[in-house]
Input
Amino acid sequence: MHMRTYPALLGAAGILFLAGCVPSSSAAEAVPTVRQGVGTCHHFMTTEDLYDPSDVAPPVPCDRPHRTETFQLVTVEGPLADAPQRPEPEQLQEYMNGRCSADVLREYLGAGPRDSLAFGIWSKYPTRKEWASGVRTVRCDASPPSLDKKTGPLVRFPVRDIMQSERSAAVRTCERRGEVVTCDRPHDREEVNAWLSLDAGPYSDDGIQAAATRVCQPFVREFLARSHAPGIVIKAETPTEDEWAKGNRTVKCGVGPADPGATITGTLSSFAEGQ
Output
């Protein structure tokens, strides 16, 4: 029987997958960057449009299919802003690193502290013409998680405060038999925003799950807003032996039905009212 010694409990850490931002689309009906404020939604007809560094295509109503929603505007300042010609996208991307704030996005989405997010973040810069005229506004867009590589992220509703409604199941991360799905589909595990490290070993292989369950317990309680939910159990993911040998000590907290054959449709988050 293998024994493993776990390091000290570090606490919860949020997860957010950030998409890159690169290369400027032109639209037949241009809308200036400064008029595309927080809360505007954007379709992006092609993948190339999504990856363009600029976007002046007309916003679309957020109840129609779209791929991103603007959640923050940032003004370029300092030496970079003094450049008479727009800097290269790589320079702007380096400047914007961290300025499209994950914390602002969580607040915009209405996420609770235990709500796990898989949204991407895209930056859209002023066009070269706008930059030359003095525009220094950068758009921070959120894109929902995508499970379809062909169509990319696509929703038909606004995502402002989405995590506080039952509709959030469509943008939450769940699993069914190990396959990642959104929580509006049948699933047997929902991700909880708590990635932890363990200690107090050594543990036998049989004891690892019990240890992971124990440290996940307060975070799952916070997620559920109750200490006990009939038929619902903590489902913590632990490192494999190979991962452990490579130094991975991370436990990922989750929750789901106790019955191995049962599935749930929707979210268990206490922040999602009306579920």
In short: Residues 1-27 have pLDDT under 50 and may be disordered.
